[in-house]
Amino acid sequence: MSRPVPEPAGPGQESVWDYPRPPAVDPSGESVEVWLGGVRVAASTRTLRVLETSHPPTYYLPVEDWLEGALRLTAGSSVCEWKGEAAYFDVTGGDALAQSAAWTYPRPRHGFEALAGHVAVMPGAMERCLVDGEVVTPQAGGFYGGWITHRVAGPFKGGAGTWGW
């Protein structure tokens, strides 16, 4: 497998190839919105971005910035080698239901404690997600929860042939 060639970052952009591994948690003052079923189910300017080499940022919103009743804890968990054990939520908005489309780290590992009390979402499972008014393109592949905006340059892990990056 060949190593991907990073795209040049333009003015005001970040290259995901400059993001660290292990990932970093970056406080963000950007305006973030999550929409499902015609309802804005979450909105925040107090988000955290998780930045990891080859991945677009994943946004984590404080749980209190989600519409009451939009998150329903569901069965299942997964483990991230860096962040720890994740718990999952179904997301509801209007008449729509996105199963296991959001997650949290109730007891994050050392270095990721800031993620406690925050929830991330798979943007591809939502009606739309926005960052500062820009509609997000979901990271390809359905496994990762990255949010692609004009702010980041790739290529991005997640699509066919990128698993070993």
CATH class wording: Mainly Beta
Low-pLDDT windows of residues: none
* CATH topology tier name: Metal Binding Protein, Guanine Nucleotide Exchange Factor, Chain A
Count of domain modules: 1
Order of strands in the sheet with the most strands?
Answer: 2-5-6-10-9-8-7
- The span between the termini is 8 Å
Class based on secondary structure composition and strand pairing: mainly beta
The coarse overall form would be globular
Q: What is the CATH architecture term?
A: Beta Complex
The count of helical stretches stands at 0
The whole-angstrom Rg is 15 Å
**Major sheet summary line:** 7 strands, antiparallel
Order of helices and strands: EEEEEEEEEEEEEEE
User: Overall pLDDT, averaged?
Assistant: 96
Residue fraction in strands? 35-45%
